[in-house]
């Protein structure tokens, strides 16, 4: 895999991971809510006007464009497994930003994911 190809894939993955983190930050400011007709309008407005949610959705849109560029250069059987890098990034950043638990079992899983990505990238 060439540096440009890997760079596009990594950029797309990082945008996707950033989107998840921004959406989580947005939901933390909105708080937990129930799905009901009575909540549809007030919660919809909160979601639509939340800067973190808007930022997260924007990251998704840009990541799709970057992903299409990557797929035009790399086989999907190589590119798609690279999305697993997002699990690693999100676990670390969720721990750092939100205080989420990263248990020993999760660390083992992350290690296995990293090994798998390395094997796919080298193939």
TrEMBL record:
One Pfam family cited in the UniProt record for this chain: EamA
Domain of life: Bacteria
InterPro entries recorded: EamA_dom (IPR000620), EmrE-like (IPR037185), Small_drug/metabolite_transptr (IPR000390)
Transmembrane regions: 52-71, 78-98, 104-121
Domain EamA: 53-120
Membrane topology: Multi-pass membrane protein
Keywords per UniProt: Cell inner membrane, Cell membrane, Lipid A biosynthesis, Lipid biosynthesis, Lipid metabolism, Lipopolysaccharide biosynthesis, Membrane, Transmembrane, Transmembrane helix
Annotated localization: Cell membrane
PANTHER family (alphabetical): 4-AMINO-4-DEOXY-L-ARABINOSE-PHOSPHOUNDECAPRENOL FLIPPASE SUBUNIT ARNF-RELATED, SMR FAMILY PROTON-DEPENDENT DRUG EFFLUX TRANSPORTER SUGE
UniProt-recorded name of the protein: SMR family transporter
